[in-house]
Design brief:
This protein is mostly helical. Helices cover 78% and strands 2% of the residues.
Length: 495
C-alpha cells in the first residue's frame, strides 16, 4: 500500500494521459465515454488520497524517473496544489455523466470519440500544471491543456466556434510564449528550472533587469491564460460557442489552474517580498482586479445570450481571485484560494444548468428561454440556486469566499476596495435576476409549454454541484481551515 501511495503523484497525471489513446482506438461513442468516466473518477479518487496524505504527512516530493531534484523533474504536492487538483478532478468526474446526453445532442456522432480523447488530454494538462514542481514542465502541460481546449471549443455547433477557437489559439500562443520567455530568463540567471531551487537562487540576482523582465513576462503570460482584464478578449467567445460540457469544464478549471500558476510563481518562485513589495505588482494587480470586477459585471448585465452573460461574469469573478492574491496577506490568500473552489463549483453548475436548457431549445438566447423555469423546474431551480451562490447570498459557497475577501480588505483598511466588492456583488443580482425573470416570469413559447424532463445524467450531475456548493456554504469550516493552511504554506508558515 505504501508503494502505491508513493506513486500517486505520477498516477494522477498518467491515468488520463494513457486513457486518451484508448478513446481513439475504440472509436465508439459509448466506449469512449466509459473510458472518460472511469479515468475521471479514478483521478478524483487519487486526488482525494493525495489530499488526505498531504494533510496527514505533509508535502509529497516525487522524483520522475528516479532523477532527484533539482536535476530531474519533480512533482511536488502541497496543500495548495492538492486543493487545485481536487477541484479539477471533481469537475471532470461530474462532467462525465453530464456529457453523454449533452454531447450526443451537440456534436456529430463521428466526432464524439475525439471529444472524449481531447477532454482527457485537457484534464491531463491541467493536472500536470498543478502537480509539477518544474517551471518548464509547467509550460509543457500548459500547452497540452491549451491545444486540446482549442480543439474542444472548435467542436461547437455554430461556425463562430471556429473563430472563437482561432482567437483563443492566437492569444493563448502569445501567453504561452511570454511564459516560456520568462522561464528561459530565469534559467539563464540561475541555471535551474526546479521551482524550489529557483526560490533559493533568485534572491541573489533579483536586482538584475533580467529577473524583473522574467517576472513581467510570466505575469503577463499567466494573466492572459487567466483571462484577467484587459487580456480577456478570448474568453467571452470561447465560453459562448463551445459545447455546453466544454464551457462548464473550462470555465470551472482552466482559469482556476492559471490563477494557481500565477500564485505559485509570485509566492513560491519570486517571493511576495520581491514581486509584491519591491516591484509595484500589487498595485497593478489590484487595479486590474477592480477593473475586472466592475467592468465584467456591468458587461454581463447587457448580454442577451446566457452563456456570454456567464462568461463576462467569470471575468468579474477572476477579479475577486486576483484581488485576494494581490493583498499579500494570509487572509487575502485564504479568500483567493476559497474563491478558486467556490467559483469553480458554482460556475460549472451554472453552465450545466444552461446546458440542460440548451439541450431542449438548441439556444442560449434569453428570449428563447422564456418560461422554461416552469416547464423545466429542476433545471431552472439549479440555475437559481447556483446563481444565488455566485451573488454571495448567505448559506452558499460564494458567500464564504466573499466574506473572507471583505475581511482581508478591511484588515488593511482599504474601504474603497470594500465598496468595489459590494458594488460588483450587487451588479451580480441584476444579471442573475435578468435570467431568473426570463425563466419564471415570462410566458413560454407554445413548443415549451409542456413539462420537459432533461436526461437524468445531466440533472444529477448539475444538482450534485449545486448541493456541494450549499454544503460548503452551510458547513465551511473544513474547507476554510484547509485554505488557511495552504495560505500559510505560501507565506512561509507551517504548511
Amino acid at each position: 500500500m505504501q508503494a502505491l501511495v508513493a506513486q500517486l503523484p505520477a498516477l494522477q497525471v498518467v491515468l488520463p494521459l494513457i486513457a486518451a489513446p484508448f478513446c481513439i482506438l475504440l472509436r465508439r461513442p459509448t466506449a469512449a465515454w466509459l473510458v472518460f468516466l472511469i479515468a475521471s473518477w479514478g483521478s478524483l479518487f487519487i486526488s482525494a488520497l493525495l489530499i488526505v496524505v498531504v494533510k496527514v504527512a505533509g508535502p509529497i516530493s516525487y522524483a520522475m524517473g528516479g532523477w532527484e531534484p533539482p536535476v530531474g523533474i519533480e512533482y511536488r504536492v502541497d496543500h495548495l496544489n492538492a486543493f487545485v487538483v481536487g477541484l479539477v478532478s471533481l469537475i471532470a468526474a461530474v462532467i462525465a455523466p453530464y456529457a453523454k446526453a449533452s454531447i450526443e445532442k451537440e456534436i456529430v456522432t463521428e466526432r464524439i470519440y475525439l471529444f472524449y480523447a481531447l477532454m482527457l488530454l485537457c484534464l491531463c494538462g491541467l493536472l500536470g500544471i498543478a502537480m509539477t514542481g518544474d517551471a518548464f514542465n509547467l509550460f509543457v502541460f500548459l500547452e497540452i491543456s491549451s491545444l486540446s481546449s482549442y480543439a474542444l471549443i472548435a467542436m461547437g455547433a455554430k461556425r463562430r466556434a471556429l473563430l472563437a477557437a482561432f482567437q483563443y489559439l492566437v492569444l493563448g500562443t502569445v501567453g504561452g510564449t511570454f511564459i516560456l520567455i520568462g522561464v528561459g530568463l530565469l534559467y539563464a540567471m540561475t541555471g535551474t528550472l526546479n521551482m524550489e531551487d529557483l526560490a533559493t537562487r533568485l534572491p541573489a540576482v533579483t536586482d538584475t533587469t533580467t529577473v524583473k523582465a522574467a517576472l513581467a513576462f510570466i505575469v503577463v503570460g499567466t494573466s492572459l491564460k487567466l483571462g484577467l482584464l484587459p487580456l480577456h478578449l478570448w474568453l467571452p467567445n470561447a465560453y459562448t460557442y463551445a459545447p455546453s460540457a466544454v464551457s462548464a469544464f473550462i470555465a470551472a478549471t482552466s482559469t482556476k489552474v492559471a490563477a494557481y500558476a500565477l500564485i505559485r510563481f509570485i509566492y513560491t518562485v519570486f517571493g511576495a517580498e520581491f514581486a509584491l513589495a519591491q516591484m509595484p505588482l500589487d498595485d497593478v494587480l489590484i487595479f486590474l482586479a477592480l477593473a475586472a470586477m466592475l467592468f465584467g459585471s456591468v458587461a454581463a448585465i447587457f448580454q442577451t445570450d446566457v452563456k456570454r452573460l456567464l462568461a463576462w461574469s467569470s471575468i468579474a469573478q477572476i477579479g475577486y481571485i486576483v484581488l485576494g492574491m494581490a493583498l499579500a496577506s494570509a487572509a487575502g490568500l485564504t479568500a483567493s484560494i476559497l474563491h478558486l473552489l467556490n467559483h469553480g463549483v458554482l460556475k460549472a453548475a451554472l453552465f450545466m444548468a444552461v446546458g440542460m436548457l440548451f439541450w431542449h431549445t438548441r439556444s442560449a438566447q434569453l428570449n428563447d428561454l422564456a418560461g422554461l423555469g416552469r416547464t423545466m423546474p429542476w433545471a431552472g431551480a439549479a440555475f437559481v440556486a447556483a446563481g444565488l451562490g455566485l451573488i454571495g447570498v448567505p448559506l452558499t459557497a460564494g458567500f464564504i469566499s466573499k466574506w473572507y475577501l471583505l475581511a482581508a480588505v478591511m484588515e488593511q483598511g482599504r474601504m474603497l476596495l470594500v465598496a468595489a466588492v459590494l458594488i460588483s456583488s450587487l451588479l451580480g443580482v441584476i444579471y442573475i435576476g435578468r435570467v431568473v425573470e426570463t425563466l419564471y416570469f415570462r410566458a413560454p413559447a407554445s413548443e415549451n409549454a409542456k413539462r420537459i424532463r432533461p436526461p437524468i445524467g445531466m440533472l444529477v450531475a448539475t444538482w450534485a454541484l449545486v448541493l456541494a456548493s450549499l454544503a460548503i456554504g452551510i458547513h465551511s469550516t473544513p474547507v476554510v481551515q484547509y485554505a488557511q493552511t495552504a495560505a500559510a504554506g505560501l507565506l512561509g508558515g507551517n504548511p
